[in-house]
C-alpha cells in the first residue's frame, strides 16, 4: 500500500513540508546565503538550489514524456552514480540568485508540482508504470514515490540542515 492513501494526502504533505522548509530561509541575510558552516555540507543557497533542481527535473521529465521524448533520468549527461555532478549543476544554475529570488522560485515550483500531482488520475499516480520516466529505473517506482522522494523527504532533511546552519551562525 502506498504511503499516501489519496492524492489529497500527498498534496497536503508536499504543501506542509515545503512551507516548513522554505520559511526557515526568511531570516537569512543575502550576505550569508553562500556561507558554509562546520557540520553542514551545504550553504543556504545550495540547499534551495538542490530542491529547485529536483523539482525542475520532475517537471521536465513529465514535459518530455508528454512530448513523446525518451526521458533520461536523472538527466542527460548525468548518471545515477554521478549525482554530485548533477547537484553542482543545480548550484551553478542558481548561484547568482538572491535568497529572496530563490524563495520565490521555490514557491512557484512547488505550486507547479502540486498542479502536476492534481493532473494525474489515481492509477497514474499510485500504480506501476504511470509514466515512462517513472519506469526508467529497475525500481519501477510509482509516480507518487518519485515525487515524495524528491519533495517531502528532502524538504524535511534539509529543514534539519538549515536549522543547524542557523544555530551555528547564531541566527
UniProtKB/TrEMBL annotation:
Entries under InterPro entries matching the protein: DinB/YfiT-like, DUF1706
Pfam families in UniProt: DUF1706
Domain of life: Bacteria
PANTHER family noted in UniProt: CLBS_DFSB FAMILY FOUR-HELIX BUNDLE PROTEIN, PTHR40658
Protein name: Cytoplasmic protein
Amino acid at each position: 500500500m502506498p504511503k499516501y492513501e489519496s492524492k489529497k494526502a500527498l498534496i497536503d504533505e508536499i504543501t506542509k513540508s515545503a512551507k516548513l522548509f522554505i520559511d526557515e530561509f526568511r531570516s537569512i541575510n543575502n550576505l550569508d546565503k553562500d556561507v558554509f558552516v562546520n557540520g553542514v555540507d551545504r550553504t543556504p543557497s545550495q540547499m534551495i538550489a538542490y530542491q529547485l533542481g529536483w523539482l525542475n527535473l520532475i517537471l521536465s521529465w513529465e514535459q518530455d514524456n508528454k512530448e513523446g521524448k525518451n526521458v533520461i533520468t536523472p538527466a542527460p549527461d548525468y548518471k545515477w552514480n554521478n549525482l554530485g555532478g548533477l547537484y553542482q549543476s543545480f548550484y551553478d544554475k542558481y548561484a547568482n540568485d538572491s535568497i529572496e529570488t530563490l524563495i520565490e522560485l521555490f514557491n512557484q515550483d512547488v505550486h507547479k508540482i502540486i498542479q502536476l500531482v492534481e493532473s494525474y488520475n489515481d492509477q497514474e499516480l499510485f500504480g506501476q508504470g504511470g509514466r515512462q520516466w517513472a519506469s526508467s529505473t529497475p525500481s519501477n517506482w510509482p509516480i507518487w514515490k518519485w515525487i515524495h522522494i524528491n519533495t517531502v523527504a528532502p524538504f524535511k532533511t534539509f529543514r534539519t540542515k538549515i536549522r543547524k546552519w542557523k544555530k551555528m551562525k547564531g541566527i
